[in-house]
Amino acid sequence: MVISKIYRSLVFMVYGMLAVFTSMGWAYVMLILSHCVLLYSISLVKLRWLCFIAGLTTLATFKMEPFISWQAGFVTGNFELRPLLFYGGCGFTIMRSMSFALENCEKKDGNYSILELLKYNFYLPFFYFGPIMTFDKFYIQANNPNLTRKDGEMWNISLQGLLHLGVIMIVAALLHFMYILTIPSDMKLLKNISDWALGMYAFTCILGLAYLNLVYDWVKAAVMFGVINTISRLDHLDPPKPPKCITMLYVFSETISSLHF
Asked: Membrane spanning segments where (predicted)?
């Protein structure tokens, strides 16, 4: 039991690599490994500015030809999620490698091994879609042999899972039954309906459907991160908090107060 606790981060890495290989192929795994090796090699110099430049330059190659076409050629197949998984996996890999490189620069005695970077990067729940847990936090939590839970923690995790499932069902129902753009796109229908019906439609759009459309991206991010966070909490990790809704105005006050002029 103690051995399994010690090597659980290694198990996470192996499982993640096998899952990525199954979904995207060995060529894609080799591309991801090349990004990890590149930024790991640069981190050995222990210059933070160089790690920043290397990471941002590597990210920029996904917007520059012929680099983007060359890298995209490592993935075969035309399945629907291919572009999303390709860019998500590569982008988050580079950002995680930057976090590792910056932490390695701060390490006073020696360097972290590249195995630690691979364990960190190939943790499957975070691999394709994030969120980004910085390397220092992941390293401590993933290598913690004391895997105990607080009272009621499993109940809270189960409740969160059910909540996210309920939100997913509600969003699916809204997308299927509420067509906010259908009536405006049909001008013949607008001309034939009464003023009262048109006014009620506008009122409903302003107070209801338009608001749902406004926060739709936030709902997607909150549900996606929420599901991922719930899974990672089952692995005894403390993931980053989900994004806040854009309609919560106090977020702006928090943002302003956090700035130091």
From this structure: 12-41, 47-64, 122-140, 161-184, 196-216
Rounded Cα distance between 131 and 146, Å, is 24
Per-residue pLDDT tens for 182-222?
555 666 666 666 666 666 666 666 566 666 666 666 777 77
Instruction: Give the C-alpha separation, 213 to 130, whole Å.
Output: 24
Count the neighbouring beta carbons within 10 Å of the beta carbon of residue 222. 17
Query: How far apart are alpha carbons 139 and 117 in whole angstroms?
Result: 9
Question: CB-side exposure of 192: number of CA atoms within 13 Å?
Answer: 5
Rounded to the nearest 5 percent, the helix, strand and coil shares of the chain are 75, 0, 25
- pLDDT at 83 > cutoff 60: yes
The residue range of the domain holding 74 is: 2-142
123 inside domain? yes
Question: CB–CB of 1/112 below 8 Å?
Answer: no
Q: Looking at the domain assignment, is residue 238 inside a domain?
A: yes
Residue 114 sits in the same domain as residue 162: no
**pTM given for the model:** 0.76
CA distance 116 to 12: 12
Digit-coded pLDDT (tens) for 85-123: 888 889 999 999 999 999 999 988 889 999 999 999 999
pLDDT digits (tens, 9 = 90+) for 11-35: 899 999 999 999 888 889 999 999 9
